Amino acid sequence: MSAANTFVKSRLPYCVLLALGATALTLRSEAAIAQAPEIEVIIVTPVQGQGLNRQRIAANVQTASSEDLGKSHALDLAAFLNRRLGSVHINEVQNNPFQPDINFRGFTASPLLGTAQGLSVYMDGVRLNQPFGDVVSWDLIPRTAIDTITLMPGSNPLFGLNTLGGALSVRTKEGITNPGTSLQAIGGEFGRQALEFEHGGNADGIHWYVTGNRFSEDGWRVDSPTDVRQALAKFGFVSDAGSLTLMAALADNDLYGNGLQEQGMLAADRSSVYTKPDITGNRGSLLNLSATRVLGAAWSLAGNVWLRKIDTGTFNGDLNDDALDQALYQPSVAERNALTAAGYSGFPASGESVANTPFPKWRCIAQTLLNDEPGEKCNGLVNQTSSEQDHYGFNLQASSERELAGRDNVLVIGMALDQSEVDFIQTTELGYLNPDRSITPTGAVADGKRAGAVDGEPFDARVELNAQTRTWSAFVADTLALDAATYLTLSGRYNRSDVENRDAITPGGGTGSLDGDHQFKRLNTALGLTRQLNTAMTAYAGLNQGSRAPSAIELGCADPASPCKLPNAMAGDPPLKQVVATTAELGVRSAGSITWNLGAYRTDSKDDILFVADDTAGFGYFRNFGRTRRQGIEAGVSTEWRGMTLGANYTFIDATYRSAEVVNGASNSSNAEAEEGFPGVEGEIDINAGDRLPLIPRQMLKLFAQIPVVDKVALNADLIWVDSAYARGNENNAHEPDGIYYLGPGGTDSYAVFNLGADWQAMQQIEVFAQVNNVFDRAYNSAAQLGATGFTAAGKFQARPFPANADGERPLQHSTFFAPGAPRTAWLGVRYRFGQ
Known about the structure:
Blueprint: H1 3-10, H2 14-33, E1 41-43, E2 51-53, E3 62-65, H3 66-72, H4 77-84, E4 88-91, E5 101-104, E6 107-109, E7 119-123, E8 126-127, E9 146-153, E10 166-172, E11 180-188, E12 193-203, E13 206-217, E14 226-239, E15 242-256, E16 261-262, H5 263-268, E17 278-295, E18 299-319, H6 321-325, H7 333-341, E19 380-404, E20 407-433, E21 439-445, E22 463-481, E23 486-503, E24 516-532, E25 537-548, H8 552-555, E26 579-590, E27 594-613, E28 620-641, E29 644-657, E30 661-664, H9 672-675, E31 684-687, E32 699-710, E33 713-722, E34 725-726, E35 747-748, E36 751-761, E37 766-773, E38 781-788, E39 814-820, E40 825-833
Parallel strand pairs: 7-10
Antiparallel strand pairs: 1-2, 3-9, 4-5, 5-6, 7-8, 9-10, 11-12, 11-40, 12-13, 13-14, 14-15, 15-17, 16-39, 17-18, 18-19, 19-20, 20-21, 20-22, 22-23, 23-24, 24-25, 25-26, 26-27, 27-28, 28-29, 29-32, 30-31, 32-33, 33-36, 34-35, 36-37, 37-40, 38-39
């Protein structure tokens, strides 16, 4: 992806921005004479308490309802966010439909450990960012239970830690607002099938709601099944004095995600996989008790206390990087003759096992063993992790809505506790590659300390870590009317986080130990100003700060003297600084039958936590990076016209590094070694201020429509256009393939995906619907990464394919790996409603 091509592509939809801006200005006069729009109240803290009129919030807040979610036929919450909300896009790095990286304004909420997290996620006041790594498991959020969605942009301090680029707040259904019973079944391509039910009701102030769903599919890629089981129940009562609600949620999910694929093999077969398996098992349970209480005419209390338990296990078959690096083992004549007589071809024969086949010399060898070339150490690894997370805490806030010096004033003051204990274990087991790209384990595990692989060669160590984290917070927000049309908001939140790491293998501190005690404190503040220009139009400006404390996994891999190789190992933990983000934004919006928004924002981040390369291939450590910037323009418009709902969202993002840095660039053609005449050899690259951040497209455009066709039949359609983006490993934006040592481009191409659905109200209680995603079967990629490839063009395992250079170094072949998007997928469903 050349700079010239990127420049041309980035200019294509500017006409859309101009059109939306012109529409916004034209509609101002219409809005002025329109009737006053209904007041939409936005909850401005994680707790279900005091809300604010949307027109008094100094940010472009986006909301959606369960009705919007249902009409879209989106598979889950993440899919809906990607298809409908502005400035949101996904990276399918894990390539399972329930494990995407959700990105908003260039900040990420991801289920993958080691990803820089920058968004906070809440459900009914419970923080869903998990204690270990701040990851978000989207598969633990039941779609059928979602009532409302609020996406709050910026570094809003009221939503606590990790709110660098935004906060997502989900509210679940209750029997008061969702009475009745429904049953839904779907079936579709790639073995997709699902059964969902929900029931709600209320009587004499008591309300109840229960929902559950079972989803399974074979998946469109090789060996990529998904099995999701979710349930949620709520029971409570409400009176004039307040409310009390108990919610319980369970999930038991098995997700196969086959990850990125090398560009050459992807071109030959888009359903192929690089290595397998890649399995994640998530078991989650949640109890949440929430309450509200009216205290006289002016004050009210709201809060919740919750307990969450998450058990996650992963089983990943990968190539052994050390096997790619160098030839280590020369078989004897006797061994070669014995293998030849046995008909050994380099892959395990039928009936081989740990018991009857010597380890490692007969099984941990490359396919070249029977030739006159040296064999290699085991060409496969099986990485397994197990984490048990106990997560609990509370939120408590008091709210007052009364006049102050004769002016409207809303005050919120509160405190919160977020505490957790995590037990994390990771092991690496030697294995060998099978013809179907699966990895067979050998039974040799790194247990307790570095273990010998072949002839005493070390490989990745076992990790066993206990991490305890406690965060105390206090917050306050006040919105004051300066006059009848102008409102000023001041808010702030103080956070104190204590992280205690204990190493079960190397206790006591010192080099190689994960032991450490860390404390992080910070007061983040915000300022917002809104001005109502007429009954429908509002201008706003805001300045706010958010922060993120380093997580246990980052603190466990932050010592330059003991580099690690994520996610395979961690070592040492000198202190890291908190990440601090400051967001400034301004804009104008209009409500009513025609709604539109036009705004600009800039978020500067200081001390971003970045994984920095070490001299050892593939190894590195976390450290604080200087500064990054994400800035852009957002525009949107939607209307209801002649029974139709039409809308569009356009985003321009300029995401760049603002400080110089040196990072691993082993697979980048512009790395230091390649520049010195040694292509294919590990080297570093220099990031300069102004270089674009990887995996963040420069532009996005979303169009959507809901159109009644004939009586009782309606269509819904949406189009997602995403601009090109640089690959991970191409942080300096300078990679250019040479076709020999470096294969594939330095990023993804732009792409467009069109989705179409239909609803037919067959009877009063029966609805039939159909959905086709990626109608035109577009072959696209949502993410890219540069890396060494362990396979030839024919798909055969290879180590270093090139002869040694003058320095005795043997180059590798490097390529671009892509996250392929799903092909055209269709499914059909029926919903039966037993009551309203």
